[in-house]
Amino acid sequence: MGKINGCLKCLFIFFNVIYAILGCVLVYGTARATIYSHQLSAVGGPGLGWAWVFAIGMLGISCLGIYAACSEKALMLKIFAGFMGVGMIIMLIFGIIMAVTRNKVQDAFMTLTSEYVKPILEDEEMRTMLQAIQEAVQCCGVASAEDWGNEIPESCRCSRSSYSSYGLGYGQCKSKPQGFKGPDSIHAQTCSDFIYMYVDLAFKVALGFFFGFAVTALLGLLISLLMIHQVKRHDGAGGSSLAMKGY
């Protein structure tokens, strides 16, 4: 018979396996997001250094939890409980940082200028992405049509004044700025509101993610403390039994 309740042990291992898989997914996602780290920094987004720490830390701590439960060693469970306590605090800190960063990004989008956007559009992949958004949403530029320099692309062309399915104002037309090349009639609405809608959604998901993990870390801490108690009680009972036999 094991030192820890079988159902509790299996449940503990199961959730640690789930988080280990999630850690692997986060490592992969962070590696993919590294491609866009420059663009994220340009609009006030956070760096990816902490994302690497978080992803690798989740994977490592989950593996530690699996080993601690399987070995039923009090020391390993204590180390895991310590990580859960620290992790809970870190998740709360990350959640607060993410909330502050969200406000900074919102302010950056509200005060966007073409001079701010033009360096981002020097990246060919970002230019292609923005043109695809312009065609789908019926908008032009991020801050304004001047984001494209002297030559406005065909994706900004507006053939008629209408409303887009993305909201009021999208699909309306206006004349191109004086001295610019490109279509004579372009979309009046910029793409900043549409882009920020998805950026803000990502921040909301991240906030739920961090605060949700803070609660999960608290539960992990409580369960690991319960398992430590069971291990100590089993070891204490075994020691008393041996003492009685010796007597």
Q: How many DSSP helices? A: 7
SSE order: HHHHHHEEH
- pLDDT averaged residue by residue: 82
Quote the beta fraction: under 5%
Largest sheet: 2 strands, antiparallel
Transmembrane segments: 7-29, 49-67, 79-100, 205-228
InterPro entries: Tetraspanin/Peripherin, Tetraspanin_animals, Tetraspanin_EC2_sf
Membrane topology: Multi-pass membrane protein
Family: Belongs to the tetraspanin (TM4SF) family.
Task: Give me the secondary-structure topology.
Elements: H1 6-33, H2 37-42, H3 49-71, H4 74-110, H5 114-117, H6 124-137, E1 173-175, E2 185-187, H7 192-246
Antiparallel strand pairs: 1-2
Can you offer a commentary on this structure?
The protein contains 7 helices and 2 strands; from the N terminus they run H-H-H-H-H-H-E-E-H. It has 247 residues and is mostly helical. It folds into 2 domains: 6-96 and 215-235, no CATH class; 111-194, Cd81 Antigen, Extracellular Domain, Chain: A. A two-stranded antiparallel ribbon has the order 1-2. The chain starts with 5 loop residues before the first helix and ends with a helix.
Short synopsis of the structure:
With about 250 residues, this protein is mainly α.
Keywords:
247 residues; Cd81 Antigen, Extracellular Domain, Chain: A; two-stranded antiparallel sheet; rod-shaped
